[in-house]
Amino acid sequence: MSFWERFEGMDPRYMYVFLALALLIPVFRPVGMPIAIDHAFTQPMFDWIERELRPDSLLILDTAYSPGAAAELDPQLAAIFRHLMRRGHKVVLISQWELGARLGTTVVRRVADAVGAEYGVDWVSVGWREGGLPWMRSLQDDFWAGMGGVDIDGVPFERLPLMQRLRAFRPGQVDGIICFVTGSPGAPTYITWFPEIRLHLGATAVMVPGLTPQLVAGQTRSLLTGLRGAAEYEVLIGEPGRAVKLMDAQSLGHLIIMALIILSNIGYAIRTRQGAT
Amino acid sequence: MRREIPMVLATVAAIYTFVWQVSHHAWETRWLTHTDLWRTFMMQVAVLLGALNLSRLQISNIRRRREHWPYSVLCLVVLWSYMIFGMTAYGLFAGRGNRHPIYLWFHDGVMVPAESTMFSLLAFFIASAAFRAFKIRSREATVLMVFAFIVMLARVPVGQAMWARMPALGTWVMAWPTAAAMRGMAIGIFLGVFAATLRVFLGLERRYLGTS
Fold this sequence. Notes:
The structure holds 2 protein chains of 2 kinds.
Chain A: H1 3-8, H2 12-28, H3 43-52, E1 58-64, H4 70-86, E2 90-94, H5 98-115, E3 123-127, H6 132-141, H7 143-146, E4 176-181, H8 187-193, E5 199-203, H9 208-217, E6 223-225, H10 226-236, H11 242-276
Parallel strand pairs in A: 1-2, 1-4, 2-3, 4-5, 5-6
Chain B: H1 4-22, H2 24-28, H3 31-63, H4 69-88, H5 101-133, H6 139-154, H7 157-162, H8 166-201
Helix pairs in contact in B: 3-4, 6-8
């Protein structure tokens, strides 16, 4: 048996070890490679928050994801929320996914504590309610009724000053939506039923090809792409965090996968040629 | 009649919903809000029916001692205990059960790490699958691989370190060829869904009644 034949029949567990090492080593010994900003996908989100939004704007942040996407979307959410608080905007956190409500609240609460944002005044988490699309549409008529009049922890909206500004999920009361998506329901809810409100997206890398047409068409104004998007945003706001640290690991992980593909193809080409002769 | 009545009901409901969804009058009169309420109510009933049906299936597995029947026991215990606990932690049907600390602990301590772990394992399976399956067997496969490499390199800093314009090339690939292909797929999928829906509208699709 030749080397290439043995290589092609390699036990997958060796590959798992290579990949694990490729992902772990840069975490402990980061290289710190420079990160370029994507001017089509990421920059518009930053410019919108930094320059276009009028002061004291109210934004809806939708954490439409589950723990599987948290590694990519939590850093995006943290960086954007940090930026919004720095610019003095207000945030109402909602979720189309049940699990996303708790995840998003945990992330935002940690950042809010760090930047001194006050719950009920600067931000509120209203959580998730059963009902799918009809529930989301009902918020256009009466946000308070649609949410049952309480936040994620059962605190009545009457006791949260920020909620006095949000009676209906409509333009005039809501200045923009940032939706963190990993599947369905997600962006189509807002593209279809809330077209008057400016929409920005943060998505897992695997979702990006499916969402790019909406970006090109202008239905969404920006699109943060996975962990890379989070890293770019951390660089833009001048506060490199977890995403920036993990980009080296992602670099090495991609290189390992590419190296494996190239090597397996060399083996395949040699084997095919030997078979032909 | 057992087949005709459900068929008529499905057709009438489908046409009614379709017309109201595209009607400006429905928006102006907020009539959609009423249909939304019905839909929400029916969704809750469907969830309950689903839970009951799943339970019936699992009980049948346990009774007949089918293969892996202990998992059926586990499924029933998790399904009903978590549901009952969620509804009763603050008093039966108080609507506050999902905020109980113990209930949340199950979510934060079990659900979150379990799902994160499952998703993380995908990276290892992808590496293994790419190694075994991603072979240049044709010109199309070669094009696919070249573009896959461009996007993979463009999305990480090492690509930029190799060639400064790599990120811009990756963005171009995503914004133009990929977007064009995804649009084509989306239109194709829509036409397929529309054709399938039209069959339900016209009563031609009857498989949901248990007949071909």
